[in-house]
Amino acid sequence: MGHFVTSKRDFRARAHSNPLNDAEFLVPEDPCSVDWSPFIPDIGTRSIDFVDLGCGYGGLLCELSTAFPEKYMLGMEIRDRVASYCVTKLEELRRLNNGKYRNIGFIRTNCMKFLPFYFPRSSVEKFFICFPDPHFKKKKHRQRLVSLRFLSEAAYCLQPGGMIYIVTDVEELFHWMNHQFAQHPLFLKKEQHVVMQQDVLLPYLLNHTDEAQRMKRRGQETQYWNVFQRK
Ligand SMILES: C[S@@+](CC[C@H](N)C(=O)[O-])C[C@H]1O[C@@H](n2cnc3c(N)ncnc32)[C@H](O)[C@@H]1O
């Protein structure tokens, strides 16, 4: 990878950003006319395959970029300084690794609200939701990313047969998210043993997010996960 100087310490950010605030995000008017090439230089006229929702510091997509060079991927992050870190880190990776990391990009936005403004109907292959903010207090549950409304928007953007992956270390949130999916008419839960046998992405999701790396450093192991398929 070469010598890497961008440090998370230079991009300190508040722990949370309220996704219910109507902060001024500029969103595309028409998802079909978005030119992604300023963010994802090699994309041409192709559409985005994988989307990391609440990507944090972007570690997962940086790993996936070289593992799946034929896929185009976007990380969405609401916190300004964290999204800036992703962009700076990506510029540095591109500079140090000629011709690589040109299939991924990062933007700052609120993915709880604006998905259909970014992705045309039936275009996305996979959404990743890794370690979403748990918002433990009951009155803050409205701020949780996965809700019935959110799933309808994600289902609209997903290809038929497309997938949503969820990973968390918070058991209560895991049950909550499973419950939202179970109530939604457009998703089916994949059998975990089938995913473990067949899905080449799963090991990346369980081992290469920034949060999974942090858990590993602390000796924590339990990650709850599931994969849901759009009908
Ligand atoms: C605990 S971090 C997990 C980061 C990363 N997915 C990982 O697994 O390492 C959750 C991230 O989601 C971001 N986030 C929360 N709500 C969001 C929203 N509505 N839109 C975009 N990003 C959001 C937070 O700012 C934070 O960086």
UniProtKB/TrEMBL annotation:
A Pfam family recorded for this sequence: Methyltransf_4
Catalytic activity: guanosine(46) in tRNA + S-adenosyl-L-methionine = N(7)-methylguanosine(46) in tRNA + S-adenosyl-L-homocysteine
Single GO cellular component term: nucleus
Residue positions binding S-adenosyl-L-methionine: 54, 77-78, 110-111, 130, 209-211
GO MF term list: tRNA (guanine(46)-N7)-methyltransferase activity; tRNA binding
Pathway(s) it belongs to: tRNA modification; N(7)-methylguanine-tRNA biosynthesis
InterPro entries in alphabetical order: SAM-dependent_MTases_sf (IPR029063), Trm8_euk (IPR025763), tRNA_(Gua-N-7)_MeTrfase_Trmb (IPR003358)
Subcellular location: Nucleus
UniProt KW keywords: Methyltransferase, Nucleus, RNA-binding, S-adenosyl-L-methionine, Transferase, tRNA processing, tRNA-binding
Main location: nucleus
E.C. number(s) listed in UniProt: 2.1.1.33
Catalytic residues identified in the record: 133
Broad enzyme group: transferase
Function summary: Catalyzes the formation of N(7)-methylguanine at position 46 (m7G46) in tRNA.
Similarity annotation: Belongs to the class I-like SAM-binding methyltransferase superfamily. TrmB family.
NCBIfam families: tRNA (guanosine(46)-N7)-methyltransferase TrmB
Name this polypeptide is given: tRNA (guanine-N(7)-)-methyltransferase
Organism of derivation: Galdieria partita
